[in-house]
Amino acid sequence: MLVLGLGALRPLGRPFYYHQLPLFVPQTEAQRLLCFQPLSLNRAREEELVLVPGIGPSLARAIVSLRQKEGRIDSLSRLKDIKGIGPKKLARLESYLKVP
Description:
Structural class: alpha+beta
Distance between the termini: 23 Å
CATH class: Mainly Alpha
Low-confidence stretches: 1-10
GO molecular function, one term: DNA binding
Largest sheet: 2 strands, antiparallel
Order of helices and strands: EEHEHHHE
Pfam families: HHH_3 (PF12836)
InterPro entries: Endo/Exo/Phosphatase_dom_1, Hlx-hairpin-Hlx_DNA-bd_motif, RuvA_2-like
Number of domains: 1
Strand content: 5-15%
Number of helices: 4
């Protein structure tokens, strides 16, 4: 975890500015999800995909195996090739996943 900024350690009596607040910069895909940022579908590991609502261990394993078998996933619509992901589930997952 990387935290930038030391504004909280300012001496008393000096003015306070919001840009001095510590800034959290997510380093892993799981931390991105906790910061309400979508996971990269091509970089997320199985353990991180399980954190997405609607994706269980078997579905995460299937996504990772699809990525390993066919290479880089260029579109979220490719997830429809996986058994258990239809149009409704894909629509729910779109806000949690991204393809750069």
